[in-house]
Amino acid sequence: MAFTQKPGRASIAFSLSWQSPVAAHCERVFVRKINFWRDLFPGDMFDEAVALKPGESCARQFEAGVLVLPFSAGNIVTCPRSRFGRLQNGNAVTPVAGRFYPQGLAWSALDCFSGNMTPFRVVSVSDKELLCDTNHPLARYPLRLDAACVDFLEMPEERGGSCTDIAELVTLDGPGMQIPGGAGDTDFFGDYPFRRRNEQNDSLFYREPRMVEHLDGTAIGNVRELYGRLLDDGAKVLDLMSSCSSHLPEPPARFDVTGLGLNREELASNRQLTRRVVHDLNRDLALPFADGEFDAVICTVSIEYLVCPVEVLREAARVTRPGGKVVTVFSHRWFPGKEIQPWPELHAFERLGLVLDCYRKAGGYGDLNTETVRGYMRPDDDPHIRETILSDPVFAVWGSAGA
């Protein structure tokens, strides 16, 4: 299709890429309706982005402190313990070094209003005070922004409307929170092995088959796309904590998949599996496989149920050939009560940091990566469409075994 003037709107998939001291990171954000007449692109990116055709992309590299406010030592302040963590209902929050909290929890010390939800990081904790960092978690990092045109959209007649700042959109609500911070690593492991509200034997809890998906159709497609990029055709794959589906690209013959799970009937219904093993990882951490037996290991929307994820990831590295990938994917839905206790209270990007930290503590991994996928539209026939039109977000961590 030929255009005689600049298109007014388009669907664009943005990717924000950056490198921290511990991993490479990519935040993918889909924006269904970009309005070129009023939305703000950073730097000189607009001139190239507006000329993109579907399937084309452009990219720009930005120095630290350009897409977000630059780092300032003045944004690191002390807060007396007595002025932190008192919620409106009177309950107190115990600060943990490296964790993020809404600035409203320390509003009088941080000179903001009590309803401010902008996160800040607790750098360190002492008996009398906290050291708080209100800088954006990406403030110190150079950032690369890619824009891929997905589709052109018709431009309706409009009056008024709002302006979207693309730099703010892709850096808002979490990116950067997954990296260690504070005086050392974030203290996720103060109570380890992790506890759960429902400590019932998992074999009993999962005795009855639950033929359910914890992701909507769009999110499943995004997970399949991720696995399609990371796994080689013909790979011998171990699907940890598997059930009725493995979320691998179709057709299933592309991979030789062993499923390890808790419910025999669920495993039997999974047509992507070529081998099925019933095994409870919370009772027996050792994987019943030989060293280097698999080309890759995946764990989809299940890591939050493991009381000893560090040891399980160490076992996953053992059974993966050198250079093979171990990939963990999760979202924001789980069986209530069976999730590990830190999980529900963490920001979604802090959960990403927890999983990344598990890989680091497990050892035996190199080339660590995190990736997030957000902003896609939920299918119209999804049962949760009335709750939100946005698809379930996808969070992923992976590394190469044998390092």
TrEMBL record:
It comes from the Bacteria. It holds the Pfam family Methyltransf_11. GO terms for molecular function: peptidyl-prolyl cis-trans isomerase activity; S-adenosylmethionine-dependent methyltransferase activity. InterPro entries: Methyltransf_11, PPIase_dom_sf, SAM-dependent_MTases_sf. Residues 255-327 form the Methyltransferase type domain. This is Methyltransferase type 11 domain-containing protein. It comes from Chlorobaculum limnaeum.
